[in-house]
Amino acid sequence: MPYTKRFDGRKFDETRKIEAKVGVIEKADGSAYFAFGDTKAIAAVYGPRTLFPQHLQNPVKGRIRCNYDMMSFSVSERKRPGPGRRGQEISHVTEKALEPAVKLDNFPNCVIEVYILILQANAGTRTAGINAASLALAHAGLPMIDLVSSVSVGKIGGKLCVDLIKEEEDFKEKNGEKSATDIPVAFLPRLGKVSLLQLDGKISSKELSEALEMAQESCNKIYEVQKRTLKEAFKEWK
Fold first, then answer.
1. φ, ψ at 218 (rounded to 5°)
2. pLDDT per residue over 18-76, tens digit each?
């Protein structure tokens, strides 16, 4: 069944409404809130501080350690409290997405702790979490070569769409088969480099190339929101 009109009326290359703030957690070294529509994430950064246990230390550079989790009430069906296997996987890929943006060689033997909590979920939680975490790292004043901007692109009923919602992730063909392909992507926009690319589903190489172009265009827009949010926050501190 072709997908000719999105469930929420957006254009196929349009993200949901974006909201971003920094300084949302007073006790953290850096913190941020980021939302794609109904998907809302907060992130808190602590450190750098000495990494323990000592055998994990790297005398050449520091490391980022992420902890991603969802509130039990963030989804319609109550989630069991505490991190699960999916949370551990997202924590790991988020670390890899953020690492290229931070000058970790400035912090040998140290760790930067990043905590990401999803307050409300309607798909795109890992990308919202990465955007929040990138803002929180910058808010903490850590030396960075770029921000990280992230969005998902999907193929639904043969149509490429930016920033999927739950109904689109669950879209099924007439025969009842689930057909959505989900592609979370993260960019370092100023450098034009990809720091995260995952693929769940089937897609041709041509479609993947088109999806990456759509993702990069959306990430450039997210990047502008991130920069504006930080500029406004630091202007208030002066």
1. -70, -40
2. 999 999 999 999 999 999 999 999 999 999 999 999 999 999 999 999 999 998 777 66
Helix axes 205-237, 125-139, angle to 10 degrees: 40
Other C-beta atoms closer than 10 Å to the C-beta of 178 total 11
Fold designation for 18-237:
Ribosomal Protein S5; domain 2 (3.30.230)
**Strand order across the 181-188 sheet:** 159-162, 149-156, 181-188, 193-197
Q: How far is CA 82 from CA 32, 45, 47, 156, in A?
A: 21, 19, 23, 32
- From CA 82, how far away is CA 124, in angstroms rounded? 20
Q: In this structure, what token pair is assigned to residue 67? A: 């902890």
Q: Which amino acid is at 66?
A: C
Max intra-chain CA distance, the chain: 60
Domain segments of the chain: what residues? 18-237
The pTM of this model reads 0.93
Instruction: Measure the CA angle with vertex 125, ends 181 and 73; round to 5°.
Output: 125
pLDDT score for 4 = 82
Asked if 226 and 128 touch (Cβ cutoff 8 Å), the reply is: no
CB atoms within 10 A of CB 74: 19
Read off the pLDDT of residues 149-169 as tens digits, 9 standing for 90 and up: 999 999 988 899 999 999 998
